[in-house]
């Protein structure tokens, strides 16, 4: 579908004491379903801010985000949270696995927040996802017993358990060595090929830049 995810004249201003920081401004973009957008830019250029606005984790100071024709700025906090839970998956550098739950339970968590699903089918689906990422032997382990790369793969599985239409990832491999990082990106690319999920990624990984439908570079909050 044309214009599945659209940003119109997005701007975000943060207030710090009596100082204002323009994190991003004049951002316009439009993605079709299944497209991969890779965002480049130096530290502080507004990459995370842009992802947070597009993912409905924060609201713009000006402009709007349209998802499949729906203006996210018109939704209540509650409705926006529901859209995030049902349609979006997030993968961050600090993966926030809950240490008191097993790997399998961590992956299942979004389902407890969202709509009620058949728990047996969900467990099978979670196990399948974990197997896909080479973690079939670890489902009953706790996060602390896994390496950084393994934990990050658990975080992808968790982001995918709701079968989201859009995956947001913000420098997810920043803590990983090259091998673990490349494996992570290969897993993600395979999902894009299989399910045509839309990806919005902040990464400097060159493989992803080549695979991207579009690469956007930010400098001081603007597209260059
Ligand atoms: N919550 C916040 N409060 C104040 N300033 C912020 C906040 N988040 C980000 N900024 C500022 O906005 C700019 C863009 O930040 P960010 O989007 O995190 O950039 P990047 O992800 O490219 O490193 C930076 O100048 C940063 O200091
Ligand atoms: Mg950032």
TrEMBL record:
Signal peptide range equals none
UniProt entry tagged with the keyword Transcription regulation: no
Keywords of the record, alphabetical order, are: ATP-binding, Lipoprotein, Nucleotide-binding, Transport
Q: Which molecular-function annotations from GO does this UniProt entry contain?
A: ATP binding; ATP hydrolysis activity; transmembrane transporter activity
User: Pfam families, per this entry?
Assistant: ABC_tran
Q: Which GO cellular component terms, listed alphabetically, does the Swiss-Prot or TrEMBL entry include?
A: membrane protein complex; plasma membrane
The cross-references to SMART domains, in alphabetical order and at most eight, read: AAA
PROSITE patterns, per this entry?
ABC_TRANSPORTER_1, ABC_TRANSPORTER_2
Q: Does the keyword Acetylation apply?
A: no
What sequence ranges are listed for the domain ABC transporter? Answer: 5-224
Give the superkingdom in one word. Bacteria
Q: Protein name, please?
A: Lipoprotein-releasing system ATP-binding protein LolD
Originating organism: bacterium (Candidatus Ratteibacteria) CG01_land_8_20_14_3_00_40_19
């Amino acid at each position: 579908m044309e214009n599945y995810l659209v940003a119109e004249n997005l701007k975000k201003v943060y207030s710090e004491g009596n100082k204002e920081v323009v994190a991003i401004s004049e951002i316009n973009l439009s993605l079709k379903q299944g497209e991969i957008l890779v965002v480049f830019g130096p530290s502080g250029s507004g990459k995370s801010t842009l992802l947070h606005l597009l993912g409905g984790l924060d609201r713009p100071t000006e402009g709007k985000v349209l998802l499949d024709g729906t203006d996210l700025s018109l939704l209540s906090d509650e409705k926006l949270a529901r859209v995030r839970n049902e349609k979006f998956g997030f993968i961050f550098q600090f993966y926030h696995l809950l240490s008191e739950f097993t790997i399998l339970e961590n992956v299942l968590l979004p389902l407890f927040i969202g709509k009620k699903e058949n728990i047996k089918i969900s467990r099978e689906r979670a196990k399948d996802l974990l197997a896909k990422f080479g973690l079939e032997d670890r489902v009953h382990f706790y996060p602390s017993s896994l390496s950084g790369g393994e934990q990050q793969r658990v975080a992808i599985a968790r982001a995918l358990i709701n079968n989201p239409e859009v995956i947001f990832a913000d420098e997810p491999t920043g803590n990983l060595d090259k091998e673990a990082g490349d494996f992570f990106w290969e897993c993600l690319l395979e999902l894009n090929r299989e399910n045509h999920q839309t990806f919005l990624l902040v990464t400097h990984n060159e493989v992803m830049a080549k695979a991207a439908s579009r690469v956007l570079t930010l400098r001081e909050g603007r597209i260059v």
